[in-house]
Design brief:
The protein is mainly alpha-helical. It contains 29 helices and 13 strands. It has 6 domains: about 130 residues, Up-down Bundle (5 helical Cullin repeat like), CATH 1.20.1310.10; about 120 residues, 5 helical Cullin repeat like (Up-down Bundle); about 190 residues, Cullin Repeats (5 helical Cullin repeat like), CATH 1.20.1310; about 50 residues, no CATH class; about 110 residues, Cullin, Chain C, Domain 2 (Ribosomal Protein S5, domain 2); about 80 residues, Winged helix-like DNA-binding domain superfamily/Winged helix DNA-binding domain (Arc Repressor Mutant, subunit A, Orthogonal Bundle).
Length: about 800
């Protein structure tokens, strides 16, 4: 054949002509290949062409040699489809060559020379003489003739030579910004060159390299060469580049602007060369640790010099937050130039140098000031940073210590008793706000607050419980301008403080005392509010705690039924005349114990008492009534020169005012004899009538109105009294609770506690068999929730010895022994 035709066209094969050698273009010998056979054998000597009209597909390669040259570039390899015209019924047989075709002697060398020239032109960034298609075909031909191994080795050698030349250009450049530019240009050019070279040798890369174990792809081969020849650890270029990169990062940390694109290019080069985490990352982390260690020490030194203060600590915390954000942005995927794999180690380094090393200084210098000034943003920042390094325990300790110190200041000063409860509520609200908004509402901080409040609020034993009870009493008494919602919120807050006190029975004693006055004198805001507080206490302490308080409400309800029955009975009401009587019958065990106060009632009032007593005894024969005059009240109609008024007064005030129905003037001594009141009670009653704004009585014998009343003072009704209201309430002057009265209340509480103390001592002695006095006292304090005075403890010990629960040791009087 003279030339290769299009395989899709029909071919006419002249069977009379001898076959040609496809490489030498010489006729082949008659025995050089198999003859074409048809269905019927050709006649001997037949040499005319025979046209066969059928297609025959050959499975082996066919070769065609283009005329006009002897180089390997003219050799083409195809898989043709041979089309022949075959007569019907004839069989075609194709025989292989007897002698295997050979490539020309200079075929490999000439082909490689063309490829080498192209590779060197690419390295030199000059135009390539041949087309890429021809170069690709040349590579394919060499691979087909099993020259791929030789081709791969020669290509690697040429690339190696080029990379070494690149190294000689870079190695002389100093380790500053210029080396980064030079390496960036070299690396970018090398990557472009390797992509182009790989496209030419793609057939080699996808066949020979792919199927040969242990052989690197062309791209990886190029990376290996660049890493070994330019970025090897023994060579100075890599160190110079890393030093220059670290210097650029340091400049940016100092506030200068740098070329992020160049840094990103170099660090991606390190990633491509697989030396990022082995070479750059350790040095980067070491440099970062050194930088932030120095910075942290400098800032803490400035903090020490400035003294303690929340402002300086707040600035330091803000600086640490800014650094964390900056380093996070440098390692952000996509936006940052440092690989995201460095983020964890870098942030850990920053946390160690700026937070962990200075936790104690930061907390000691600024925590208290930040809390006192309620700088919530800085406190939240401190919590966030300490939680990063697992230092929340130091924060919790400082938090608890602050609460204890501030709480002791509020609760332990007797001068602040008047505002102690309000101050504690405000203080607790502030602490709760800090926990919820700054400390993520963690239970450890809630527990720290609870333990700290319990610590300082019980330092004064029973006094806080008493003040909380009185604060609740003030809230539940009739107060103008207070809505039901505000009252409910106040009661909830008081209940929070109630949970902290250990002497809850002390609270119960004072609360019961005040509740009795509210119920009997009708001073309560509302029955619903009272019952709401009662239900809260019941939920908090159980039904046993509120059983007596519930009994007080039950007595009021029963007394209301008594009075309805009394008023419906004309037998009794007809005897009262114009007087309206209302009596509350109280169960002795439910209500506080009151000391009876002697008082000589007017005849009309004494007669009313007897009438009701007769009514009550008719229903409950055998019971005994004890009248408590100090809790009584009344409504008097008084005629003054300027009109009639109704005065709401206490029973003692009513007794005094009724005396002036029979006399124009009375001396202090006369009033004392007629009423039979003791001096303190009489003085308090007269002061409320003549020394207040609603002055019902005048002192006629002296002009100076002092609070001290004299025995010879003369009192008369103030006929000029006037008031725009028709009904006026005359408030009784409240006597301050004396130390003796408070001790009496506390003594009554201890009388109730003694059973708990006795039971605790017996349980301890039963388990331990024998204990010294000091040991028993210590274990008792741990067993009960209230403090026991040493003298009370001794009394209970003596009581148990008398009842033969324990005894003193015969050899050691300070040792107690349990008696089974």
């Amino acid at each position: 054949m003279s030339a290769r035709r299009d395989v899709k066209k029909r071919r006419i094969v002249d069977l009379s002509q001898p076959s040609l050698d496809l490489f030498t273009n010489q006729p082949m010998s008659s025995s050089g290949g198999k003859k074409l056979r048809l269905n019927q054998p050709l006649a001997k000597g037949q040499d005319q062409p025979h046209v066969v009209k059928s297609e025959v597909k050959t499975t082996g390669p066919a070769y065609a040699y283009a005329p006009g040259g002897t180089g390997g570039a003219g050799l083409a390899v195809t898989q043709p489809t041979v089309t022949m015209n075959r007569a019907p019924g004839k069989k075609l047989v194709i025989k292989a060559f007897k002698v295997k075709p050979k490539i020309p002697e200079n075929f490999v060398e000439n082909t490689w020379n063309r490829l080498e020239r192209a590779v060197r032109a690419i390295h030199a960034s000059t135009p390539v003489a041949d087309s890429l298609e021809e170069l690709y075909q040349a590579c394919e031909n060499l691979c087909y003739h099993k020259k791929a191994d030789e081709l791969y080795s020669k290509l690697r050698a040429v690339c190696d030579e080029h990379v070494q030349q690149e190294y000689t250009k870079i190695v002389t450049i100093p380790a500053d910004g210029s080396v980064l530019h030079a390496v960036d240009v070299s690396w970018s050019s090398f990557c472009r060159q390797m992509i182009l070279i790989r496209s030419i040798f793609l057939y080699l890369d996808r066949t020979y390299v792919l199927h040969t174990a242990g052989l690197r792809s062309l791209w990886d081969m190029g990376l290996d060469l660049y890493r070994e020849r330019v970025m090897d650890g023994q060579l100075p270029v890599k160190k110079n580049v890393i030093d220059a990169l670290l210097e650029q990062i340091k400049r940016e940390r100092d506030g200068e602007r740098i070329d992020h694109h160049m840094l990103r290019s170099h660090l991606r080069m390190f990633m491509d060369l697989s030396i990022y985490f082995t070479s750059f990352d350790p040095m980067f982390r070491e440099a970062s640790e050194l930088y932030y260690t120095r910075e942290g020490e400098r800032l803490i030194s400035e903090l020490d010099n400035s003294g303690s203060g929340g402002d300086a600590v707040g600035r330091y915390l803000q600086h640490v937050d800014n650094r964390l954000a900056e380093e996070g942005a440098r390692c952000a995927q996509g936006a940052g130039y440092i690989d995201v794999g460095s983020r964890k180690g870098l942030i850990a380094t920053l946390e160690s140098t700026l937070i962990t090393k200075h936790v104690r200084t930061v907390v000691e210098k600024g925590f208290v000031d930040l809390v006192e000034k309620s700088r919530l943003s800085d406190l939240k920042r401190m919590y966030s940073q300490l939680s990063r390094v697992g230092a929340l325990e130091q924060l919790r300790i400082a938090f608890a210590s602050y609460i204890r110190k501030a709480g002791i200041t509020l609760a332990s000063d007797p001068a602040r008793d008047a505002s102690m409860v309000e101050d504690l509520l405000v203080f607790r609200d502030r602490i709760s706000t800090i926990i919820s908004q700054c400390f993520d509402d963690l239970d450890v901080f809630h527990n720290a607050m609870k333990e700290s409040f319990e610590f300082f609020i019980n330092q004064r034993q029973n006094r806080p419980a008493e003040l909380i009870a009185k604060w609740v009493d003030a809230k539940l008494r009739t107060v103008k301008g207070q809505t039901d919602e505000e009252l409910e919120i106040g009661l909830d807050k008081a209940l929070v403080l109630f949970r902290y006190i250990q002497g809850k029975d002390v609270f119960e004693a004072f609360y019961k005392k005040d509740l009795a006055k509210r119920l009997l004198l009708q001073r309560s805001t509302s029955v619903d509010a009272e019952k709401s507080m009662l239900s809260k206490l019941k939920i908090e302490c159980g039904p046993g705690f509120t059983s007596k308080l519930e009994g007080m409400f039950k007595d009021i309800d029963i007394s209301r039924d008594y009075m309805s029955s009394f008023r419906e009975s004309s037998k009794y009401t007809s005897q009262l005349g114009t007087i309206e009587l209302s009596v509350n019958v109280l169960t002795h065990g439910y209500w506080p114990t009151y000391t009876p106060v002697n008082c000589n009632l007017p005849d009309e009032l004494a007669r009313c008492q007897e009438i009701f007593k007769e009514f009550y005894m008719s229903k409950h024969n055998g019971r005994r009534l004890t009248w408590q005059h100090m809790l009584g009240s009344g409504l008097l109609k008084c005629d003054f020169d300027k009109g009639r008024k109704e005065l709401s007064v206490s029973l003692f005030q009513a007794v005094v005012l009724l005396l002036f129905n029979n006399a124009e003037t009375l001396t202090y001594t006369d009033i004392s004899k007629l009423t039979g009141l003791e001096e303190k009670e009489l003085t308090r009653t007269l002061q409320s009538l003549c020394l207040t704004k609603t002055r019902i009585l005048n002192i006629t014998n002296r002009a100076v109105k002092t609070r001290d009343l004299l025995p010879d003072d003369v009192f008369a009704v103030n006929q000029d009294f006037e008031n725009p209201l028709y009904r006026i309430k005359i408030n009784q002057i409240q006597m301050k609770e004396t130390v003796e009265e408070r001790e009496q209340t506390e003594e009554g509480v201890f009388q109730d506690r003694q059973y708990s103390v006795d039971a605790a001592i017996v349980r301890i002695m039963k388990s331990r068999k024998s204990l010294s006095h000091v040991q028993l006292n210590a274990e008792l304090m741990a067993a009960v929730k209230f403090n026991v005075k040493s003298q009370d403890f001794k009394k209970r010990i003596e009581s148990l010895i008398d009842r033969e629960y324990i005894e003193r040791d015969s050899k050691d009087s300070n040792l107690y022994v349990y008696l089974a």
